[in-house]
Amino acid sequence: MDRLVFLLSSGLARGAVLALFALSLVIVWRSARVVNFAQAAMAVAAVYVAFALTAASGSYWLGLLGALAAGALFGALVERGPLRFVPTDDPLPGMIVAIGLVMVVQAGLAIGFGPEHRPMDAPFSERPFTVAGIPVLSPYEVFVLVVAAAVMGALALLFGRTRLGLKLRAAAFAPETSRLRGVRVPRMVTVGWMLSVATAALAALLLVPTELGLSPHAADLLFVDAFAVAVVGGLDSPVGALAAGLLIGVLDSLVTGYASAAAAPLAVLAVLTLVLLVRPRGIFAARERRAG
Amino acid sequence: MSTLTVERLTTGYGDGAPVVDGLDLEVPDGAVVALLGANGAGKTTLLRALTGTVPTRGGRVLLDGADLTGLRTEERVRRGLALVPEGRGVVVELTVEENLRLGGLWRHREPALRAAVAEMYELFEPLAHRRDAPGHTLSGGERRMLALAGALVSRPDVLLLDEPSLGLAPLVVARLLGVLRDTAARTGLTVLLAEQNVTGALSIADRGVVLSLGAIVADRPARELAADPALRHAYLGF
After folding, report:
1. Do residues A236 and A285 lie in contact, with contact meaning Cβ atoms separated by under 8 Å?
2. Nearest CB partner across the interface for A182, out of B53, B77, B93
3. What H or E segment, with its residue span, contains residue A134?
4. B56-63 vs B66-67, strand pairing mode
5. B188 φψ region: left (φ > 0), alpha (ψ -120 to 50), beta (else)
6. What is the Cβ-side half-sphere exposure of residue B220, based on CA atoms within 13 angstroms?
């Protein structure tokens, strides 16, 4: 029983990070119709900025802000740079450019900072609280859950309740009609990239202290899992990313705890396969509609 | 409000022959001009070239003398040139309210935007009952109203309409054209209205322009054009 509680709660924390990263993939897919395979590499590059800022200033929070700002900047640079020259009527060329970017960014980071793992301190203790003798969540996991929930809430408000959010959604759904409504669609695509990579940078920053440490490949597995999460949820669906992220996080934790860590990726793969067999567009994917 | 001037405009698709070739047209400030012609005459292509959705090969598009030709679609819209495209103009994933707000975002700050949206609900009363309905649940007539309202909410100076009556019930058409006529009369809006529904279009227009194979073959007062059976027969097919 106590083991179950522990596995569920730590699975939830990992799931929140997964959901956040998957959400970042959903945002960029919706705004630019690109599956950004470079998301992990770009996010990790932003975490290096956070690492340097924290090392220089001694403040974790300054590093966190730095990661968000660097993520947004990298997102804008990639969209305004290499991806502007890629045809947008087909998602494939964008993905290929993104894969190329993975190699460039990861090699660049390894040249600049070395390939080794750098330990990164969490801002809160990672020792779990105990309730009636049962270990539950660590303060750091609570922090992760709170930050993830806050960011998701903020994004939901931004997209659902603000003028910018309305333009972002319209530009994503119907670029031609949006232009005829005076929306500067290229600018909206850039903003989508900035939001997306900043969110991914935050997810990677939250993950790194609980893993081996910071290295150019620190978020590779996170990307693989989050991509599966985004597909299971439906690439177009922010709610799907959230639900599937939590589901896969908990599943991963339970299988790791009760079977073995080696079995966890298989369980995730089984769920992915099952979902794609039953609902090829993902659980929460919108049904096909007539184009507007 | 504004005068739309088209000078020797040439446009077409890809490497194909021009669809519109060296066309001159002036839609004076506050006028309602009907753009008539059979299927394939080039009406839609002309309107799309005016808004920059189809690239211009030659010639110029001027709004009150200012050259719009090099501008992107969204910048032309922000200069006051709005288009309601044929059968589209609604973001079907967004609600009625969101579609209306979207149309006015660039023009209005918040209180003014709410007022402009409220005005559209008065003008297009059926939409007021469907504020929170997503675009894809609307009927054809409601969609057409929403597309027109979404363009009007930004208070454009020149409104281009592509076949607003296509596929609609006669009563709905009458209502749509009525709103259009009243709005133009009330606000001095300049309108270029492409229509296959010749009678309907000429009933609200000051002038009629007949397009055939991408060139203007007649340009006369609407009443005169409506009363000329030879011309109707030759170019409009009835």
Report:
1. yes
2. B77
3. strand A134-135
4. antiparallel
5. left
6. 12
CB contact under 8 A, A292 and B93: yes
List the domains of chain B with CATH numbers: 4-229 (3.40.50.300)
Contact list in B for residue A178 (CB cut-off 8 A) is 74, 91, 102
Owner of token pair 């232009």: A179
Distance CA A99, CA A39 (A): 10
Per-residue pLDDT of chain B in tens (238 residues, 90 and over written 9): 689 999 888 898 888 888 988 889 999 998 999 999 888 888 899 999 999 999 888 999 999 989 999 899 999 999 999 999 987 899 999 999 999 999 999 999 999 999 999 999 999 989 999 999 999 999 988 999 999 999 999 999 999 999 988 888 888 888 889 889 998 999 999 999 998 888 888 888 999 999 888 888 888 888 888 888 777 776 666 5
Q: How far is A262 from chain B (nearest CA, A)?
A: 42
Q: Both tokens of residue B50?
A: 């005016």
Q: Which of A96, A236, A120, A163 is nearest to B102 (CA)?
A: A163
Residues of B with CB under 8 A from a CB of A: 51, 53, 72-74, 77-78, 82-83, 85, 88-94, 98, 101-103, 105-107, 135-136, 150-151, 154
ipTM: 0.91
3-state per-residue secondary structure call for chain B: CCCEEEEEEEECCCCCCCCEEEEEEEECCCCEEEEECCCCCCHHHHHHHHHCCCCEEEEEEEECCEECCCCCHHHHHHCCEEEECCCCCCCCCCEHHHHHHHHHCCCCCHHHHHHHHHHHHHHCHHHHCCCCCEHHHCCHHHHHHHHHHHHHCCCCCEEEEECCCCCCCHHHHHHHHHHHHHHHHHHCCEEEEEECCHHHHHHHCCEEEEEECCEEEEEEEHHHHHCCHHHHHHHHCC
